[in-house]
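quick one, 147 residues, struct below
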Amino acid sequence: MTPEQIELVQSSMQELGAGDDVVRRFYDRVFELAPETRSLFPDDMEELRTGFLATLTELVASLHELPDLALQSRALGARHRGYGVQASHYAVVRAALLDTLASTLGDGFTPAHAAAWGQAYDLLAEVMQQGAAASAGGPSIASRRPR
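---
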């Protein structure tokens, strides 16, 4: 990612603020796009929503520190594998995240923002999938067929 793309992601993250509403809309979109994923989550998602926003904020803040970001992302991928996350879910989350950002930020979410967020997500997802594969003892989660 270029420094300009990192700045776009980080500045738009600040614009989102700490609102629970954004996270609710994100998860609603995930479940709309892939209703079968709802069973992977607890009935009461309050703690999860708080954790998601904190983790996303931390990852976005770490975009300048790729070694730290990679370490965090690999561990996150390994944990998500344990929750039952499959390779196909990463595309759903990507779409839900970009949709949520676009609907929340409106005209402030330009094509340049979308491209920067897409690239940031793809980087994180790739490293998370590497962490998931390593925790499974396999070569790559991306090369496996969904269950």
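The mean pLDDT is 84.
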